[in-house]
């Protein structure tokens, strides 16, 4: 049986589709820190307690949870992604190909970019290209008479790469004016939403902490740097991609920077923001074609990721256990042969 562990609600969102695609006889225990997030997916056999070491294979989707599985003594760990597989010019452990992921023996990756980086860093590990299991569960929304514009921003980091800087400070003065003549809702990365909540409310913008609720309500998604922009686009809706002067055009990280940046209408200046939203709402043939081309890069394959991931997990768990049993048997045989070889010569002829 295979266990799973998610220390944050957004990790549950990424594991749940794969977990539910597993045959029931292969589901062990799903350990979570937020029971409500598990209940939203209707997950059976969920446990809120310290992760035990019971020797079973386990699935996680973050480096922090990989470390937790290590600390719990788990020897068989599968590491999936809780995003689009974005990486930067560093060996940061949180990204595909980063340092410190050697404990994982199975990697479930969403695209060729993440696959190549992972294989290069961990050539002895098993790497399976499964796309994004979460895409199979995302809701769609029909265009409303009065379109809803969702703004979202990633948390800022200046230690990894300039492309990790939030665009909120660059665009914040333009948003209230847009909210006066368009229906606007405010969202942010889970680590950043508490920071922006007061500002959104001060601008008269409704705060929507849950991305699932954004998907249920928004017609256009305006975002700087997040896997959520690709997830939103995968439902067939337009995106506005926010760039800042800090984002270096001379650096190619892949995916969002810059190979798949055509997932939405790009905006480089706050003065052009309202116009960019208008062009996104038009969602013309060129915009749709660019979006589809970007999604083909970010998700390979585009559909069926949950079943692919579940099949890979079952096969990996079975082969890992079989390999482990074989090693135990070989060790026992070698120990027997060693004992036999150490017997006195006289006794061998007896």
Q: What's this model, at a glance?
A:
This protein has 350 residues and is of the alpha/beta class. Helix content is 39%, strand content 15%.
What gap, in angstroms, lies between the N and C termini?
48 Å
CATH-derived architecture of the largest domain: 3-Layer(aba) Sandwich
Low-pLDDT runs of 5+ residues are: 322-350
Individual helix count:
13
Structural class label: alpha/beta
Tell me, briefly, the overall form: globular
Radius of gyration, in Å, reads 24 Å
Could you explain the architecture of this structure?
The model is unreliable at 322-350 (pLDDT under 50). The chain has a seven-stranded parallel beta sheet with strand order 3-2-1-4-5-6-7, sandwiched between helices. A six-stranded parallel beta sheet has the order 10-9-8-11-12-13, with helices on both faces. It has 13 helices and 13 strands. The chain is of the alpha/beta class and 350 residues long. Helices cover 39% and strands 15% of the residues. It has helices spanning 9-21, 35-40, 63-71, 112-121, 168-171, 175-179, 193-202, 211-217, 227-233, 273-282, 285-298, 305-341, 345-348, and strands at residues 2-6, 27-32, 46-47, 58-60, 77-79, 104-109, 126-129, 148-153, 183-188, 206-207, 220-223, 239-242, 265-267. Helix 1 crosses helix 12 (305-341). It is globular and about 55 Å long. The chain folds into two domains: 2-132 and 302-328, Rossmann fold; 141-298, Rossmann fold.
